[in-house]
Q: What sequence folds into this?
């Protein structure tokens, strides 16, 4: 079909860029804002959906979605977390990312791909955790560091186990940011809720108790008996009160030293509820009085740059409780701080 009228459509120009016929192709897909060219991947990085594609890409990092919230004890919605975190980035695509904090361009230094989501269906929680484990295992086996977008904190159990499995016999430790210890014996009789992942990892021998470092604990759970069990297992933890009294910098310094004392490699797990709900309202089990967003970002940046990172997750983003996407954006920035620190360390 041809236009019936050859009269051109004109709007007065007020830009420095191309005009006329050239302006339709003026911007490539990575130049456009996320909302204008939404491809769905994290920061518009290329998709590499299986182990072969990850190997062919020579990926250093692979983003993995774990849309699972069957382990929640209160407010659900974290199954929508991976999509929200991927969508929250609203500026241009990956080639233009430059970190003011580290003065590094992460996507120039690192090959980052998005491996898509684990094939989870509702109503089958055990299967959900098994396929998360297999998805993360395949990513790690392909040579990429998996960064998993949750999902509730149940997903750390299969994800960290997969990383430990692939890296065996190297010892993997966990640095865990959270308002809650997540070391309970069970959740109303279930062994796989979001309050149990760290206990499962220890009980099943994937991660040794002394190789756990927890930061940001506060609130009114778990109970005294659970902390006694943690102490007996050799876990080390730092409460929010300790950070208030000693200062965040001092506590993070000690946490890094502890993380480097024993393990060969580190899995970093960030529950977004470690941040005060005034800055991260979109989560299922908020606890008032948490870290500032910038404190978490700085801590992640320093840890990722100091350890041999074998894997990572960001969990408990629940979009139905978010406001103006601020929690999803913070979670995305947690990932970006880790990538920027890794890029800066590589030089």
A:
């Amino acid at each position: 079909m041809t236009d019936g009228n050859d009269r051109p459509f004109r709007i007065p120009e007020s830009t420095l860029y191309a005009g006329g016929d050239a302006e339709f192709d003026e911007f490539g897909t990575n130049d456009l804002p996320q909302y204008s060219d939404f491809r769905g991947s994290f920061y518009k990085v290329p998709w590499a959906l299986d182990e072969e594609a990850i190997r062919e890409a020579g990926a250093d990092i692979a983003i993995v979605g774990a849309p699972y919230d069957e382990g929640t004890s209160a407010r659900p919605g974290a199954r929508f977390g991976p999509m929200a975190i991927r969508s929250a980035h609203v500026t241009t695509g990956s080639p233009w990312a430059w970190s003011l904090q580290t003065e590094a361009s992460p996507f120039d230094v690192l090959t980052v791909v998005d491996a898509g989501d684990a094939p989870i269906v509702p109503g089958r929680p055990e299967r959900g955790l098994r396929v998360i484990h297999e998805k993360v295992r395949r990513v790690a086996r392909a040579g990429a560091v998996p960064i998993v977008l949750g999902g509730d904190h149940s997903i750390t159990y299969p994800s960290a186990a997969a990383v430990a499995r692939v890296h065996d016999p190297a010892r993997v430790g966990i640095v865990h940011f959270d308002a809650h210890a997540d070391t309970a014996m069970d959740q109303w009789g279930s062994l796989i809720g979001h309050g149990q992942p760290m206990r499962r990892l220890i009980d099943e021998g994937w991660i040794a108790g002394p190789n756990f470092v927890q930061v940001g604990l506060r609130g009114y759970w778990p109970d005294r008996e659970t902390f006694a069990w943690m102490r007996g297992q050799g876990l080390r933890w730092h409460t929010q009160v300790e950070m208030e009294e000693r200062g965040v910098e001092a506590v993070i310094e000690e946490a890094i030293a502890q993380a480097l004392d024993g393990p060969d490699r580190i899995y970093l797990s960030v529950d977004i509820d470690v941040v005060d709900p005034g800055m991260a309202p979109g989560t299922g089990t908020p606890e008032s009085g948490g870290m500032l967003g910038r404190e978490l970002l700085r801590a992640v940046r320093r840890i990722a740059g100091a350890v041999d990172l074998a894997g990572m997750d960001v969990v408990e983003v629940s979009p139905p409780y978010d406001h103006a996407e601020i929690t999803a954006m913070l979670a995305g920035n947690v990932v970006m701080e880790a990538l920027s620190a890794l890029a800066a360390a590589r030089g």
About this structure: The chain has a mean pLDDT of 91. The radius of gyration is 21 Å. The domain at 28-346 is CATH 3.40.800.10 (Arginase; Chain A).
